[in-house]
């Protein structure tokens, strides 16, 4: 065991690759939250009056709410007055419409992160909206997408350019009063992504957003809204990183998906925020509300997530299955190591007839990590013949970690069928022995077994992401033999 | 959904508890003993500060208790001598060939109980009796046993039970003693006397809504063995509230077979909390069959305190119209190498609600734990509701833990098979339900009791399914 422990330690101490800070001149509001700060944010973004009104309503509501305590996580109380709610890279001109105008430092950052913002983009064929601290800095491929009728822009632009769409859909899936962090987000969100796919359009390329927190003492509050009109299809990817800092930083995002009749949205996340050091110092608090509404018949929303980063992950990508025959899917791999904590899962709310949902959740805990699956499956009275299958497996690596499963199942229709299964185990000695006997090193064997354990989820990821996810998992867990 | 109690609701609830306490002054259990007095006054104080029952509390998320707090109840006292007689004969003859303790409306009935039990002469090293009597004869032993089991319930109903406990079952079995026959405990409830006019009986039931707080203490010393049957039964439409609390302590290598049948009246409230302490190599085998009550809740709290112990629970619950049936399990693997398995099945044949909430905790040091939990539900009617929540909380890596839950319907093909053989639909459904339930009922190892449970389930399903089928056809 001694040697094994050593290798775990060297790995855990291995650097967080994305932990650098970009030295960039930024325009940051002083820490603190008040009506005046919200007014300033709104003014900076030159927002219409209805938007400010919505923010202030959310703020008033937030003041009356309490920090949720039900999640299986522990953290010191967050001082919401110590956070700066707005930070933007200072731009030379007021608005940077083309990539040339963007600070080269910033572009270098994204290159370092491996996000091809420029020519590589053409080759990669991925349209990217990059959010740096609080604002969206670059959106690529707008023209090409516009030709297909797809709107892909920062949400700030969308508020200016497509107010009627924003007014119709913003907050329609996650109302501002939804929960503590969603409410905070509604009050102070600074940017994010807006996607609209018109009727019958199959989005010609994968859309992607890259989030990065750079400034110290800032929180990132972005808001993503994706609307897929009747019969359309879109696949959307999301990735996140942050510098290594000693203090905890808050990331409280909201993602809303709307799928109308026959539309299909596939949303994939690779979350690799800075997880803090091995003592659990620093790292991102990732408190995110993600929810999709299958509004129309036969609509389909699929969430896939690979959660390897963050000091604390608190997120439950959910599906509200309104339309008859609509489908919701949730595929998740969550890895916790060091002192990381994850409380993640999904909600599948079956309202329409013949609705189906699938939940596959794989939790891996190593070191002192605490991994929790928390999910709700609700079959409403009207949900004739609704069907759900949930599978939650946990893998424990080491004797200091924890794996927990808290499924909630509520059934009000006698024709509904629900199945939930969960297992918890460690990597079996037999499997390890089998691999080692055939000359595979212990580390490789563990990596193979873990990858096999996660296969069901990885196969749901778009190609490029699947490769990245496997690599990420390898880096995170190599050597952590139980 | 309103999660928080408003001020008026909190006030109503505190008041509800307070009313019970103020009406309890006449209770006389062990008042001559200072330690009992102390225990009870402490519990009364705790009642003031313990969190109230509300949906925001995770433990009460799905079990709405508003209905309970709207009903005024009065604690059962020992000085009144009105006695429910109707149906007692039949209840008594139904029971198995065993040593018997009978409680009628929460009070011990010596006439109906086996004489041997009353005289404490069952066997060498065995002390069995109602708590009241044993407190007279073996006060020190009871005190020791209470000390051993103290501070287990940190909730309002456990505190209420301690504050108001009026009697109960006391069983103490010495080392290596095996009781040859099962002990059967009967809890019967029914009106003291039948009034002739409807109006009278209404006002009568209002005043006589009794609440019984029985406290059972069961201690098995090393290597002792016991088979225990508990049966709750009540007369139709009789209003009452049973708030039972049972402590079971199994010392090294002790084993108990514990079957419970809850067949309370259709208007009854029933809350049964069981606290199990399992020491090294002990075995608890329980079956819990819950068929009655309008509002019923069972809490099993099992704690492993020695390695190699086993806790095996099987349960069946049925839900009729307007009925709530709630099972809460809390299994704590605090030491390595223990095995727990829980398997609960539900049949919802009416417009009611079932709640299953199971929690398995495997602590850091508890390697080689084996835990499995399963909950299946058969849902036959519209407007019924199942809320199930099997939870695992695991901090050790070398363990085998799994849980599963299903909600489903009767298989159309099985139904068709029976229908094609000329069996009418409701009867076919009943047969399939009985088959589904047999997996649990067959685990009861007292054949007479098993038969009894089967016949009662048969009657309940007849009532339930025939009503629903006649509604369908009209």
> By helix and strand content of chain A, what is the structural category?
alpha/beta
- Spatial order of strands in the largest sheet of chain A: 4-3-7-9-12-14-17-20-22-24
Number of strands of chain B: 21
Q: Please, how many domains of chain A?
A: 1
Distance between the termini of chain B: 35 Å
Radius of gyration of chain B from the CA trace? 22 Å
What is the 3D form of chain A? globular
Mean pLDDT across all residues of chain A, rounded? 81
Please tally the helical runs of chain B, counting DSSP H or I stretches of 4 or more residues: 12
The quaternary organization reads as heterodimer
Structural class from helices and strands of chain B?
A: alpha/beta
Mean pLDDT of chain B: 85
C-alpha Rg of chain A, in Å?
A: 22 Å
Unreliable sequence segments of chain A: 1-13, 91-98, 118-125
Helix amount of chain B = 25-40%
Helix content of chain A: 25-40%
The domain tally of chain B reads 1
* Major β-sheet profile of chain A: 10 strands, mixed
- Count every helix of chain A, treating DSSP H or I runs of 4 or more residues as helices: 12
Keywords:
A: 482 residues, 12 helices, 24 strands, disordered N terminus, B: 474 residues, alpha/beta, 11-stranded mixed β-sheet, 10-stranded mixed β-sheet, globular, disordered C terminus
Layout of secondary structure:
The complex is a heterodimer of chains A (482) and B (474).
Chain A: H1 2-13, E1 26-28, H2 35-44, H3 49-63, E2 87-89, H4 104-112, H5 119-124, E3 126-132, E4 135-139, H6 142-147, E5 151-154, H7 155-161, H8 163-169, H9 180-188, E6 191-197, E7 206-212, E8 222-228, E9 233-241, E10 248-251, E11 254-259, E12 264-271, E13 283-294, E14 300-307, E15 312-315, E16 318-321, E17 327-336, E18 341-344, E19 347-350, E20 356-366, E21 370-379, E22 387-397, E23 402-411, E24 417-426, H10 429-437, H11 442-458, H12 463-477
Parallel strand pairs in A: 3-7, 6-8, 7-9, 8-11, 9-12, 10-13, 11-13, 12-14, 13-15, 13-16, 14-17, 15-18, 16-19, 17-20, 18-21, 19-21, 20-22, 21-23, 22-24
Antiparallel strand pairs in A: 1-2, 3-4, 5-6
Chain B: H1 7-22, H2 34-49, H3 66-69, E1 74-75, H4 88-94, E2 99-104, E3 107-108, H5 115-118, E4 126-130, H6 131-137, H7 139-149, H8 156-164, E5 169-173, E6 183-189, H9 198-207, E7 210-212, E8 215-220, E9 225-234, E10 240-250, E11 255-263, E12 269-278, E13 283-290, E14 295-304, E15 310-319, E16 324-333, E17 339-348, E18 353-362, E19 370-379, E20 385-394, E21 400-408, H10 412-419, H11 425-441, H12 447-473
Parallel strand pairs in B: 1-7, 2-6, 5-8, 6-9, 7-10, 8-10, 9-11, 10-12, 11-13, 12-14, 13-15, 14-16, 15-17, 16-18, 17-19, 18-20, 19-21
Antiparallel strand pairs in B: 2-3, 4-5
Helix pairs in contact in B: 2-8, 10-11, 11-12
């Amino acid at each position: 065991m001694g040697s094994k422990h050593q290798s775990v330690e060297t790995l855990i101490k291995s650097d967080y690759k994305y932990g650098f800070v970009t030295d960039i001149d930024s325009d940051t509001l002083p820490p603190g939250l008040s009506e005046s700060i919200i007014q300033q944010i709104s003014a900076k973004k030159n927002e219409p009056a209805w938007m400010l009104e919505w923010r202030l309503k959310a703020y008033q509501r937030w003041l009356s709410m309490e920090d949720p305590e039900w999640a299986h996580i522990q953290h010191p109380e967050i001082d919401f007055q110590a956070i700066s709610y707005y930070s933007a890279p200072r731009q030379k001109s007021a608005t940077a419409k083309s990539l040339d105008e963007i600070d080269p430092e910033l572009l270098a950052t994204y290159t370092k992160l491996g996000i091809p913002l420029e020519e590589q983009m053409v080759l990669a064929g991925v349209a990217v909206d990059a959010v740096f601290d609080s604002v969206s800095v670059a959106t690529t491929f707008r023209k090409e997408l516009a030709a297909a009728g797809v709107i892909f822009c920062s949400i700030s632009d969308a508020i200016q350019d497509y107010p009627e769409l924003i007014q119709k859909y913003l907050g329609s899936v996650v109302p501002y009063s939804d929960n503590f962090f969603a409410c905070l987000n509604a009050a102070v969100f600074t940017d994010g992504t807006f996607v609209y796919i018109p009727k019958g359009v199959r989005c010609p390329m994968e859309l992607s957003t890259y989030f990065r927190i750079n400034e110290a003492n800032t929180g990132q509050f972005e808001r993503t809204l994706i609307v897929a009109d009747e019969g359309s299809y879109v696949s959307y990817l999301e990735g996140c990183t942050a510098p290594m800092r000693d203090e905890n930083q808050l990331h409280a995002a909201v993602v809303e998906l709307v799928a109308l009749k026959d539309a299909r949205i596939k949303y994939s996340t690779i979350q690799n925020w800075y997880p803090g050091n091995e003592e659990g110092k620093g790292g991102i608090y990732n408190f995110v509300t993600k929810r999709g509404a299958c509004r129309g018949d036969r609509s389909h929303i699929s969430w896939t997530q690979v959660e390897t980063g963050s000091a604390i992950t608190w997120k439950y990508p959910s599906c509200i299955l309104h339309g008859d025959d609509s489908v919701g899917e949730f595929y998740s791999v969550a890895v916790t190591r060091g002192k990381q904590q994850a409380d993640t899962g999904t909600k599948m709310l079956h309202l329409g007839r013949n609705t189906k949902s699938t939940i596959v959740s794989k939790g891996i805990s190593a070191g002192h990590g605490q991994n929790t699956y928390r999910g709700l499956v609700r079959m409403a009275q009207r949900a004739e013949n609704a069907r759900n299958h949930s599978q939650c497996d946990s893998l424990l690596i080491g004797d200091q970690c924890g794996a927990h499963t808290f499924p909630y199942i509520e059934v009000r229709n006698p024709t509904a069928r629900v199945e939930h299964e969960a297992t918890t185990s460690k990597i079996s000695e037999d499997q390890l022995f089998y691999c080692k006997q055939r000359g595979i090193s212990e580390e490789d064997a563990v990596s193979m077994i873990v990858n096999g354990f996660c296969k069901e989820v990885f196969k749901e990821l778009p190609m490029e992401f699947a490769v990245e996810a496997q690599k990420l998992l390898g880096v995170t867990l190599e050597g952590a033999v139980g | 959904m309103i999660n928080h109690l408003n001020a008026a609701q909190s006030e109503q609830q505190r008041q509800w508890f307070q009313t019970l306490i103020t009406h309890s002054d006449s209770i006389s259990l062990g008042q001559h003993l200072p330690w009992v007095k102390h225990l009870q006054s402490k519990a009364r104080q705790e009642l003031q500060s313990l969190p109230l029952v509300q949906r925001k509390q995770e433990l009460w998320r799905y079990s709405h208790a508003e209905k309970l707090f709207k009903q005024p109840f009065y604690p059962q006292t020992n000085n009144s001598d009105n006695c429910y007689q109707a149906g007692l004969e039949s209840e008594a003859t139904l029971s198995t060939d065993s040593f018997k303790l009978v409680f009628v409306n929460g009070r011990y009935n010596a006439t109906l109980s086996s004489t041997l039990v009353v005289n404490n002469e069952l066997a060498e090293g065995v002390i069995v009796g109602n708590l009241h009597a044993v407190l007279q004869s073996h006060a020190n032993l009871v005190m020791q046993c209470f000390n051993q089991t103290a501070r287990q319930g940190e909730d309002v109903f456990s505190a209420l039970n301690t504050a108001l406990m009026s009697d109960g079952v006391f069983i103490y079995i010495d080392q290596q003693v095996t009781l040859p026959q099962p002990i059967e405990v009967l809890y019967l409830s029914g009106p003291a006397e039948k009034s002739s006019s409807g109006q009278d009986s209404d006002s009568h039931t209002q005043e006589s809504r009794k609440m019984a707080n029985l406290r059972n203490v069961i201690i098995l010393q090393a290597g002792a063995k016991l088979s225990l049957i508990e049966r709750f039964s009540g007369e139709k439409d009789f209003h009452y509230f049973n708030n039972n609390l049972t402590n079971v302590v199994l010392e090294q290598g002790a084993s108990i077979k514990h079957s419970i049948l809850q067949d309370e009246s259709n208007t009854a409230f029933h809350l049964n909390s069981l606290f199990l302490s399992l020491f090294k190599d002990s075995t608890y085998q329980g079956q819990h069959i819950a068929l009655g009550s309008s509002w019923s809740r069972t809490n099993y709290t099992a704690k492993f305190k020695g390695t190699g112990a086993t806790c095996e629970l099987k349960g069946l619950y049925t839900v009729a119209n307007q009925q709530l049936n709630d099972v809460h399990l809390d299994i704590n693997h605090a030491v390595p190498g223990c095995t727990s398995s829980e398997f609960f099945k539900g049949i919802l044949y009416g417009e009611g609600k079932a709640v299953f909430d199971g929690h398995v905790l495997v602590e850091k040091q508890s390697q080689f734990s084996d835990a499995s939990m399963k909950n299946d539900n058969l849902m036959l009617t519209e407007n019924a509701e199942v809320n199930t929540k099997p939870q695992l909380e695991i901090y050790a890596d070398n363990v085998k833990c799994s849980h599963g839950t299903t909600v489903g319907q009767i298989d159309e093909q099985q139904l068709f098979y029976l229908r094609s053989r000329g069996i009418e639909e409701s009867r076919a459904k009943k047969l399939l339900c009985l088959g589904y339930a047999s997996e649990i009922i067959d685990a009861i190892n007292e054949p007479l009791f098993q038969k009894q449970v089967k016949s009662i389930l048969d009657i309940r399903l007849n009532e339930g399914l025939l009503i629903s089928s006649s509604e369908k056809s009209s």
